[in-house]
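Methods — Computational structure assignment.
A single polypeptide chain was analysed. Its primary sequence is given first, followed by the predicted tertiary structure written as C-alpha cells.
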Amino acid sequence: MPGQFEQLRIAILSPVSWPVPPEGYGPWEQVASNLTEQLVKRGHEVTLFAAAGSKTAGKLVETVPHPFSLWPEQETKGHARLDPDTGLLAGPPNFRALEQQHIAICMEAARDGCFDVVHSHLHVHALIFSRLIPCPMVSTLHGAAWATAHHPVFDRYRDQPYVSISDAERAFKPDLNYVATVYNGINIDAFPFCEEKEDYLLFAGRLSPEKGTAQAIEIALKAGMPLRLAGMIESQYQDYYDQRIKPHVDGRNITYLGLLSQRELVPHYQHARALICPILWDEPFGLTCVEAQACGTPMIGSRRGAFPELIQSGETGFLFDTVNEAVEAVKHLDRINPNTCRTNVKTRFSAPVMAQGYEAVYRRLVAQECPGAGL
C-alpha cells in the first residue's frame, strides 16, 4: 500500500451528461476534470471514467459512446417502434441502462484490484456497488441529498464515506458519514483578473425559479443597473422564462446572452460590476460565485446555502435577505477591492487546494482500510 508521499491509484467516476471537461454547461463534469488533472500533476495514477470525447492527462476509459446531453438527435427523437426488417423493437437509447454500464465498467476494474480508492461524482447511483468492491469508495454529493427521493438509498448506505462541497450541504442529510468538506476548485488561470468594471450586473446560471432569475431582474431594475443574463433554459422552465423573464428582455436594460461556454462567459465576469445570485434554495455551492471572484468581480448573493461560506461579506461581496437589501448593496460595490476577491479564490477555491483536500481524504480512507499500511 502507498505511503504518505507515494502514488495512489485513483478512479474518478464522472457524470456522463457532458464531456469532461465540458465545453459549455456541465458543472460536475468540470469539477471532475479539474480534480483529475490536478491529481495527475501531483503524481498519482488517475483513471477517469467518462463519456466518449472526454480528455485528460490521466488514463481515460470511455464508457458510453456519447455524452447523454449531446447524443445524436436522429437517435434520440421518436418513440419505440417495430423494425419490420429485423422484427426487433427499435427506439431511442436507454440512458438508465447506459449509466449502469458506465458505473459497472468502473466497478469491474475496482473489483479486479486496479485502484486504491474510487471517487464517485454520480449522485446516489454508484452507492449500490460500494460494498461490493475491495477498495473504499468516497462519494461527493454535489447537492444530491436535496431531493428526498434519493434518501432511501442514502439511508441504506449512510455508513459509506461522503464528502460535502460545503458545510451547509450537510443540512440536507445530516446523518450521513461525512469524512470531510472539500470546496470545489477552479482553474484560476482560466479566469484572468480584471480591475476595470463597467456599469452592468451579471446573472450566470440556469434560468429557473430556484435560481431567482426573476428576482435578479427585479433587483437590477430597482437599482437602475443593466443586467445581463447567461444560462440554460431547461424545457421544464420554458413557461417560467416566457412569462417571468422574456417580457423584460429588451436588449438594453435586460439582455439575454444565451447559454455561453466558460471561455465566452469570462469577459462578462471580468467587466461586471457584480455577479448577482438571488437563490431561493439552499444551494450547496456556486461555481459561478468563485469564477466571478477569480476575475476580481464581487458577488451579491442570498444569505442561503453555501453562500455565507463563499462570500466574505463586505470584503468580496454582500449577502442579503430581501430584494431591497440587494438593491442597497449595489450602491456599495465600490467598497469591494477586486484583489481581495481574487485572493479569496486563490487561497480557498482553486483546483490545487481542492486536490490537496481530496488527497488527504483518500489517504485517510486507505489507511483505515489497511491499518498496517503505515500511511
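Note: The two ends are 8 Å apart (CA to CA).
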